Amino acid sequence: MPKWFDYKTSADLNAAALKLGVADIVQTDTDYSKLLEPILIGGRTVGNRLAIHPMEGCDGELDGRPGKLTFRRWKRFGNGGCKLIWGEAVAVLDEARANARQLWIHDGSLADMARLLEDLRAEHRAEWGADACSDLLVGCQLTHSGRYSYRRPLIAMHDPSLDPVTLVPHPAGDGKIPMPPDYPVLTDDDLKRAEDAYIAAAKRVVKLGFDFIDLKQCHRYLLSELLAAHERPGPYGGSFENRTRLIRNIIARIRSEVSKDILIGSRINITDFVPYEKGADGRGMPRPYSTPYKWSFGVDPMHPETADLTEPKQLVALLKSLGVSVLNISFANPYNNMHFGRPFEKPPLDGYETPEHPLLGVARHFKLAGEMQQAFPEMPMIGTGYSWLQHLFIDCAAANVNQGRIALAGVGRGAFAYPDFVKDLKSTGKIRDSQACIAVSSCTALMRAKGNEYGQFPSGCVPKDKFYGPIYREAINAYKAGNKPTPLPSPVVERADAGTPARGEGKA
């Protein structure tokens, strides 16, 4: 039985939106024609207004090269028909990877990453025609995982709400402990080295032939955490100018040292809100905090569970002035307040039950992204928050795009479940209801699962892609047994100016 989503038709969803008081925000439309119209992004024609978000499968090799399941997923995305494919997170340094199987761009991974991109394009041409890639836009998301780097957290600041739930290696070398108050913060010189790593990575992205570079500024990874570094002293904290110093430097250097022509995009958090924890009744509740709250971006400091888009709008204006061509709008933190960013039907095993009706979370996405798009109508933005809507996501996407609330609609979890929804939409005028994501968090559970010989299980859609059923059962059994990740051999860590690093010994 469904816990929350129990809507067969758009009329059912509209009635629920009316009952919850969000009927002016969550609306539906069955005129899909504009979704299939082209849009201009940075001088490039993109063939439709449907996008795939940067969805990691946690399935690369231990040395950062794509694995066989990475190739499988990218081919499915290429075949499906979305014309903007926002490629998944690729770490700029080995030490900055979020998990043991996250992609990492270095000289030793370039050949496989080139094949990954070409395989996606070849699938697109095979399905959509010899000239189909002329209006296909494929990006590479460059990331430094910062606080969520898997070997050890690399923090830009201390955060009294997040630090107690940020685990660091035990000094004795056995297991992990909550972050102590004296845990080291990245120095200004560390951030300068990170800047160098971004530039080295950007040069490789251009060499590979991606259509755009995404500089990831969301979900409290490094560039996102710096936006919230109100209390950090020195040139990277305090004022808005200082907190945006690193992203400004990276973009300026890409233009001066890498390419004047490569398109630049960014997936940004427009608000962080506050961290949550599981309450006594199993539902999420805010972790204790004091006001004025100084550790999040895009919030009212006296009411930090409320978004304040003043600085996010300053950020968009800044990025626009620096020549950024497209933005992917997101918010919150998937580790600590997941219901904001990913409204769900059922939480992962390590999560909490949603403290609100998920449709309210969807409405929040539509409202805040819509406000940003309305403030910058000339900047193409991709909206988020559609997957919980299951088979009705396409009706809501049509309504938002038709009304000009957002330029493009993107799916993340929904693309794991149903990567070829555009193919069905174009051929039959509708999507297959039975194939849509049902938001039960099995993909997230796999992303959290570490207890195998690689230190990371691969992720995919368990209910809709039967390939992942046995993997999920193995991961759940490992979780229940309390299995810990197997220590991994560390590949050679690459300096920004180094040559080809040695490959690790991983296999997929």
State the CATH architecture.
Answer: Alpha-Beta Barrel
CATH topology: TIM Barrel
Helix share of residues? 25-40%
Output the structural class. Answer: alpha/beta
Coarse morphology: globular
Number of helices: 15
Describe this structure in words.
- By secondary structure, this protein is α/β, with parallel strands linked by helices.
- The chain has a single domain (30-446), classed as Aldolase class I (TIM Barrel), CATH 3.20.20.
- It has 15 helices and 17 strands.
- It has helices at 10-20, 68-80, 110-128, 188-208, 222-227, 240-243, 245-258, 310-321, 338-341, 358-375, 393-402, 413-417, 421-428, 442-448, 469-480; strands spanning 39-41, 44-46, 50-52, 84-91, 103-104, 137-143, 167-169, 176-178, 212-215, 263-269, 276-278, 284-286, 299-300, 303-307, 326-330, 381-383, 408-411.
- The strands form 5 sheets. It has an 8-stranded parallel beta barrel with strand order 3-4-6-9-10-15-16-17.
- α2 (68-80) runs parallel beside α3.
Write the layout of secondary structure elements.
Blueprint: H1 10-20, E1 39-41, E2 44-46, E3 50-52, H2 68-80, E4 84-91, E5 103-104, H3 110-128, E6 137-143, E7 167-169, E8 176-178, H4 188-208, E9 212-215, H5 222-227, H6 240-243, H7 245-258, E10 263-269, E11 276-278, E12 284-286, E13 299-300, E14 303-307, H8 310-321, E15 326-330, H9 338-341, H10 358-375, E16 381-383, H11 393-402, E17 408-411, H12 413-417, H13 421-428, H14 442-448, H15 469-480
Parallel strand pairs: 3-4, 3-17, 4-5, 4-6, 6-9, 9-10, 10-15, 15-16, 16-17
Antiparallel strand pairs: 1-2, 7-8, 11-12, 13-14
